[in-house]
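Entry:
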Amino acid sequence: MRATVIHAPHDIRVQEVPDPTIQQPTDVVLRVLRACICGSDLWAYRGESARQPGQRIGHEFLGIVEEAGAGVNGFAVGDLVVAPFVWSDGTCAYCAEGLTTSCPQGGFWGSVGSDGGQGEAVRVPFADGTLIKLPAAAASDDRLLTALLALSDVLGTGHHAAVGAGVKPGSTVAVVGDGAVGLCGVMAAKRLGAERIIALGRHTARTDIARAFGATDVVAERGDAAVAAVRELLGGEGAQAVIEAVGTEQSMRTAVDITRDGGSIGYVGVPHGSGTGLDLGVMFDRNIALRGGVAPVRSYIPELLPDVLSGAIDPSPVFDLAIGLDDVPAGYKAMDERTALKVLITP
């Protein structure tokens, strides 16, 4: 089959690799119908996170079960399923608590020795604990299929940030980051009942989506100017709940500075850069809570799926460029140069 591999920074290739096979009775082999490129993939693309030459890449996908191991009980050949970005056994204490990303037998797609999502097929370990079945009819609905793909990562990650930030009905919320996760954070905050949502971003195409997803205000400034603008909008105080969806030192510092005393930050931006942007003394004095991390999206999909199926929420607009598998290297370039927000891949 063909799959995307990374050989070096800015060296993404689509090449022939061995077909996936059932290796354990709990495996399935999945034919990929939709995949995409994540903003976190760009850190490997830019050389800011290490990868071995020839390593697979990509962690967001959905598709059709082509083969199921003898130990798989919940899925059969022909089922349409979505995969969260981490596989998990579904039986350990962490999985029982909903923290599937800490499963001792779990792992990330594209890690050494595993398949990546940006290919024609994937071997899925622990299928019963990992996959979520989707309605078969969705396979023939292109818009719905694209919306459902967001369940594999960005929609659940945005929801995780909103939950970590303590968003509830009537909350004032600020969202730092106008990427796909930040935009899904806006959608999640609206879904949880936030009354006012301030999106921080300077790209009109993205902030237009933020407004469509529920943002009531947009702040285009950065740094100290952004802090001043948010506080002015909120009568001199910060937001009760802040979503941090970037992961840089500046974005975290901005998040702290726009949080109201006694408020909370939900952070899901993958940390990168030279520092954290956190001053624990400031957070201590102002009673600011910090909660988040890698999102256990497998635990959120059952909650979010009905709203996607009904059309109550539609995250599909975050995908603004659709390509075939051969064009994946160009898709990475487009996202790296910020000419695309999030690239959809149809193998």
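The mean pLDDT is 96.
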